[in-house]
């Protein structure tokens, strides 16, 4: 619980900074987080994308490592919508992944996800 209390505010601040700068990470997972003195550093922006000026979709000039509509992400931590249409609600993808990371920190594991 102490770890969660230390990491949660820092990770949310990092995501807020990234999203305010019109970037969505799209591959948020524990392996892409470096924690030092309760500060979180976000790494590996290889699947990241620029948001358009409204923040509602992708900027056409950069869409990461996409192959058609598929993007290189870690399926365990990815929001289900990223596999349906990677062009909608982009910042929500990162928030979904952050929620799974918090669950893993709180309970020590993640429930197995079943794709519909």
Automatic annotation (TrEMBL):
It comes from Pseudo-nitzschia delicatissima. GO terms for molecular function: ATP binding; protein kinase activity. PROSITE patterns: PROTEIN_KINASE_DOM, PROTEIN_KINASE_ST. Residues 1-116 form the Protein kinase domain. This is Protein kinase domain-containing protein. Keywords: ATP-binding, Nucleotide-binding. PANTHER family: MITOGEN-ACTIVATED PROTEIN KINASE. InterPro entries: Kinase-like_dom_sf, MAPK, Prot_kinase_dom, Ser/Thr_kinase_AS.
């Amino acid at each position: 619980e102490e770890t969660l209390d230390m990491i949660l505010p820092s990770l949310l601040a990092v995501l807020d900074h990234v999203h305010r700068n019109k970037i969505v990470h799209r591959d948020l997972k524990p392996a892409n987080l470096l924690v030092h003195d309760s500060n979180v550093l976000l790494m590996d922006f290889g699947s990241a994308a620029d948001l358009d000026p409204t923040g509602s979709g992708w900027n056409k000039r950069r869409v990461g490592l996409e192959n058609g509509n598929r993007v290189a992400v870690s399926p365990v931590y990815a929001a289900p919508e990223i596999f349906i249409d990677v062009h909608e609600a982009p910042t929500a993808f990162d928030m979904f992944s952050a929620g799974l990371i918090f669950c893993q920190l709180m309970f020590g594991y993640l429930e197995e996800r079943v794709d519909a």
